[in-house]
Write a structure and sequence with these properties.
Radius of gyration: 19 Å
CATH architecture: Alpha-Beta Barrel
Largest sheet: 8 strands, parallel, barrel
CATH topology: TIM Barrel
Strand content: 15-25%
Distance between the termini: 14 Å
């Protein structure tokens, strides 16, 4: 499979060199901080998605949820459910509260703009206390490189970048799974003009080339998790990029299967937040995540 993938991907990518982040030797990377959080929370690899429904007390509610579930998770993830209604000060308060429990915080914004705008966005997110963000590789390899390089070079805090490869919702196949023609740099010609590959394969290769800290592959597609994990291990020989898998429970994914298929972390929101007993459900998923592991 690895040889076939390498033929599928843009020939020009073979000449691309991933840029090394500018970091102080003492600056821990996002994945190192996240690993430390896993160790401090009994091996839990659950990322809690704080996808809260609109209310008048979102900050208090978010903090009370962190109080109740911090023992069973390693990170929180915040998306537009909170980013839009809350101020930057409110968001920083929630992130600081999560940090007080030793948790990490991911801004799930699926960043997708030109590099200059992406860099400003990253700076605002860092100032709001986020440790990492999600990014959409649709911006292209060079823009992805620039954006991730900027995130890694943040003074004092190495922000993580997690690239979308295959989302968890039902219609993801119509985009991430679509067949696309060979992509070549301007001024060059494709060696095989008739060749094509799946978009998610290009996104995966670009994520690895750009030194992304992680990729996102939905738990609803364990076969894609296995495929991406096998390629990542085959390309590097060891794990340097984490695989985050959303979609367990409410969207139909099985967290145990996702982890055994190659996911490093499961992202869970509604299945915990709206369970009859959120603490019990979080505890159950934490135990699954600490005991399930990938086998090739």
């Amino acid at each position: 499979m690895s040889d076939e993938w390498r033929r599928d991907y843009n020939q020009g990518n073979k000449d691309q060199t991933a840029r090394e982040p500018i970091l102080a030797a003492s600056t821990p990377t996002f994945l190192k901080r996240l690993s430390r959080s896993v160790e401090e929370h009994d091996g839990s690899r659950v990322v809690l998605a704080l996808d809260l429904e609109p209310s008048n007390a979102l900050v208090d509610k978010a903090c009370s949820i962190i109080d109740a579930l911090a023992c069973y998770i390693c990170s929180i993830k915040i998306n537009m459910h909170l980013l839009l209604p809350l101020s930057m000060d409110d968001i920083k308060h929630v992130n600081d509260y999560a940090h007080s429990y030793g948790l990490q915080s991911i801004a799930d914004i699926k960043l997708n703009d030109i590099p200059s705008t992406n860099k400003v966005t990253i700076d605002y997110l860092a100032d709001s206390g986020f440790d990492a963000l999600t990014i959409n590789p649709i911006i292209g390899l060079d823009a992805l490189n620039d954006t991730i390089h900027h995130a890694h070079g943040r003074g004092g805090v190495c922000m993580g970048a997690i690239a979308l490869v295959y989302m968890s919702h039902k219609s993801a196949e119509s985009s991430y799974g679509m067949q696309v023609g060979a992509v070549v740099p301007e001024g060059q010609h494709a060696q095989n003009p008739t060749s094509s590959t799946s978009l998610y394969r290009i996104f995966l290769e670009w994520a690895l080339t750009s030194n992304a800290d992680g990729i996102v592959v939905g738990a609803t597609r364990p076969e894609m998790i296995r495929e991406c994990r096998a390629y990542m291990v085959g390309k590097h020989g060891y794990r340097v990029t984490a695989l985050f898998s959303p979609g367990s429970g409410a969207q139909g994914g099985d967290p145990s299967i996702a982890l055994k298929s190659g996911a490093d972390y499961i992202i869970v929101g509604r299945s915990i937040l709206y369970a009859d007993d959120p603490v019990k459900e979080a505890s159950r998923l934490a135990k699954i995540s600490s005991s399930s592991s990938y086998s090739s």
